[in-house]
Specification:
By secondary structure, the chain is α+β, with helices and mostly antiparallel strands. The protein has one domain: Nucleoside Triphosphate Pyrophosphohydrolase (Alpha-Beta Complex), CATH 3.90.79. The protein has helices spanning about 45-60, 105-110, 115-125, 125-140; strands spanning about 5-20, 20-25, 30-35, 35-40, 65-80, 80-95, 110-115. Strands 1, 2, 3, 4, 5, 6 and 7 form a seven-stranded mixed β-sheet that branches. Helix 3 packs antiparallel against helix 4. The N and C termini lie far apart (about 45 Å).
């Protein structure tokens, strides 16, 4: 039995909370509900990646990191490759609701929406993202 080739990478994202709500992304092509997150580019910090991806995918201009929520390793097989991803998330707030102009690609791939912190966990598609949401709720003092 042959083993799949292994690829590793880092990703970082944000749990953006404002007025008791959290920013989620619907990804229609995969019918997934996600948090904003993306690949850490060479020379880019995890924090910078999280902020960039939150702006690009979530369409919010001024996210601000309030706390680090930690890291987790996620492993999965996709297209004949075994992927190992180190995920980092940060609790973020917004000082204003100014929109960020999204690229046509991001606008086609992600539909951002706001939902109550209490309801968000049941909507998220992946266990790791649900865990980071729980951490964000704890950091905010939410039940």
């Amino acid at each position: 039995m042959s083993e799949l080739p292994v690829r590793e990478y880092e990703a970082a994202g944000g749990v953006v909370a404002r007025d008791g709500k959290v920013l989620l992304l619907w990804r229609p092509a995969r019918d997934e509900i996600r948090l904003p997150k993306g690949h850490v580019e060479p020379g880019e910090s995890r924090e910078a990646t999280a902020l960039r991806e939150t702006r690009e995918e979530g369409g919010v201009a001024h996210p601000r990191i309030a706390a680090e929520l930690g890291r987790q390793q996620v492993e999965f097989d996709h297209d004949g490759i075994h992927w190992i991803r180190q995920e980092s998330y940060f609790l973020m707030t917004l000082d204003d609701a100014e929109p960020f102009p999204r690229s046509p690609e991001d606008a086609a791939e992600f539909a951002p929406f706001w939902v109550s912190l209490a309801d968000a966990e049941t909507l998220l598609s992946f266990p790791t993202e649900r865990e980071f949401l729980r951490r964000a709720r704890a950091a905010l003092g939410s039940q």
